[in-house]
Every structure is written in structure tokens, then in C-alpha cells.
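Hi R.,

As promised on Friday, here is the backbone we talked about, encoded as C-alpha cells. Could you run it through your design pipeline when you get a chance and send me back a sequence?
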């Protein structure tokens, strides 16, 4: 049986549906941004790309966790 997706990744289907871009594309934008701090990246996604706070936060949290 498949376990339900938890944490930031649980937002991914709704992010792709709402904004029309795959999560991998958002993550690449985050990775290539000159910004490095979590809340700076969240604010940038909200201001420049129109993401809601929860969606931006989930993308940033998941992407930055991959670096660790």
C-alpha cells in the first residue's frame, strides 16, 4: 500500500495545477536564484511569480532540504 505524501511535497499537485508549471521547474528557479535564505526566497516567489505563501514556503522548504 502506498503511504500518503506528507510535508511540503503534499502541496505539489495543487501547485502544479494552480500555476501550470511542474515542481521541477520551480525548484530549478529556487536553486539558481542568487537568494539563499528561506524567507527571502519565499518573498521572491510571492512577489515575482504570484505564488501564495503556503505554496512558496513548501517549494522552498523542500528544495533547501535537498541541499542538507
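Update: got your reply. Pasting your designed sequence below so it's all in one thread:
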Amino acid at each position: 500500500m502506498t503511504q500518503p505524501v506528507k510535508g511540503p511535497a503534499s502541496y505539489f499537485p495543487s501547485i502544479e495545477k494552480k500555476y501550470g508549471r511542474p515542481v521541477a521547474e520551480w525548484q530549478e528557479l529556487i536553486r539558481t536564484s542568487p537568494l539563499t535564505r528561506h524567507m527571502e526566497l519565499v518573498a521572491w516567489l510571492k512577489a515575482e511569480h504570484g505564488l501564495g505563501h503556503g505554496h512558496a514556503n513548501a517549494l522552498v522548504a523542500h528544495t533547501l532540504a535537498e541541499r542538507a
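One thing I noticed while checking it: The chain has one domain: 11-67.

Thanks again,
M.
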